[in-house]
Amino acid sequence: LSVIIGHTELAMMKLQPSDSIYKDLEEIMSAGKRSADLVRQLLAFARKQTISPKVLNLNDTIESMLKMLRRLIGEDIELIWEPGKALWQIKMDPTQIDQILANLLVNSRYAIKGVGKITIKTDNMECDAAYCETYPGLIPGKYVRLIVGDSGCGISKEALVKIFEPFFTTKEIGKGTGLGLATVYGIVKQNEGFINAHSEVGKGATFMIYLPRVVAETSTPVDTRMHGEAPKGTETVLLVEDEESLLDLSKKLLKQLGYAVLSTTNPNKAIQLVEGHSGPIHLLVTDVIMPEMSGRDLCRRLISLCPGLKCLYISGYTADVISHHGTLEEGVHFLQKPFSQKALAVKIREALDRA
After folding, report:
1. Residue with more model confidence, 1 or 87
2. 36 and 129 inside one domain
């Protein structure tokens, strides 16, 4: 999928939107992204998604997404944002918040016929034993609560008990995968949270997500680069990828972003490249699982040759193969395949710019 999405991106950059083939390429891109989203949804539901949790303020993260969310639901639906005051911090991968809200809002958009409203709220919740008795599965404690409600058609009692099951959908055939709410459920559980839904037919639906509070850690500033232009650079990047088609594509994407690129399909040849290169090498971009040597071992070897070398890992493998219980170690930079040029550009700058 990375090869399909990447080469389509490159082809579209060489054309004008008015060109006859441009719309065909848009359809290929759209199909590729839908397939990539489906892979991510399956991984999220199975809790195999590789995550990089950060201490964050949920209000700040949501506010950085509002423009994108309004485009997602369309002009006929009003998006109301009600941030809670003095919100506690949580520890979570920001991209998972994107996934949660995108899936919930798409679900709400489908439930609203014509004009309507979707409301996003946050607040602090201290749940005692008595409160938790009302919601089986919720453990007493302090949580940040995310509430998403809509003015849509509502959900029947029969459907309500099944909505978090994978492949269950009330949509017409071809209109949905039945993975949207299952994805949300998987993400919440992966982060030791709790989700509940309230709905009546004709009275809309409300989803309440409880995310555990974290204490005494500095929150990470929101990175807004994914919603803007692809950031560029001029540093030298060593690219190691054992799949030749993806190596070729990634090299083209990197050069287009302004980087000087050294590349190889072989970890041992990568070491030889470094030993024979006279100038500085700023970043290693490497696959994780390769013949002869893992990406992590390669990084350790190269740091002994190039002190200060930064590293970005890329992989299509599930979290349990490349990380500890699905969570990356602190300071490790990782990009899940398949990826777009912008996602690659943002992750490269993140790895290079972080001290």
Report:
1. 87
2. no
Rounded to whole angstroms, how far apart are CA atoms 264 and 319?
25
Adjacent-strand bridge partners of 125 = 143
Rounded Cα distance, 281 and 250, in Å: 17
Residue 94, preceding peptide bond in cis (omega within 30° of 0)? no
> How many separate helices (H) and strands (E) can be counted in the chain?
13, 12
Per-residue model confidence as pLDDT tens digits over 242-276: 888 889 888 988 998 999 999 999 999 999 999 99
Count how many domains the chain has. Answer: 3
Domain containing 39: what range? 1-46
The reply to whether 196 and 112 lie within a common domain is yes
pTM of the model: 0.58
- At residue 149, the 3 state secondary structure works out as strand
In a domain, 222, yes or no: no
3-state secondary structure of 93: coil
Specify the pairing of strand 116-127 against strand 77-82: parallel
DSSP 8-class letter at 139: P
CATH number (domain holding residue 327): 3.40.50.2300
Tell me the two tokens of residue 221.
Answer: 């500033």
**Candidate ranges 34-38, 107-111, 145-149, 289-293; pick with highest mean pLDDT:** 145-149
Express each pLDDT in 88-141 by its tens digit.
999 988 888 988 998 899 889 988 988 999 999 999 999 999 999 988 889 999
Residues 68 and 189 in one domain: yes
Return the CA Rg of the chain: 22
